[in-house]
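Hey, I was hoping to borrow your eyes for a little while. I've dropped the whole record in just underneath, so have a look:

——
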Amino acid sequence: MPPARRPVRPSSPYGLLALPRAEDDGPPNGLTLDQAIERLIRCNLDLYSKSSEIPEAEADILTASLR
């Protein structure tokens, strides 16, 4: 006969975790995702320089197709 199993109660060694409610969408004057990405590109000089390389590469492709 196998030994009887006792139910295991989940424990939280660090205390209770307070999760935000579903209606909590952040601060009322917060950023949208598009605004956050635009700000990141504008403030990060490396990303800003990379964003100018994309139109340059597209121009190179267009020029190569004209030859």
Q: What stands out?
A: The first helix runs from residue 33 to 43.
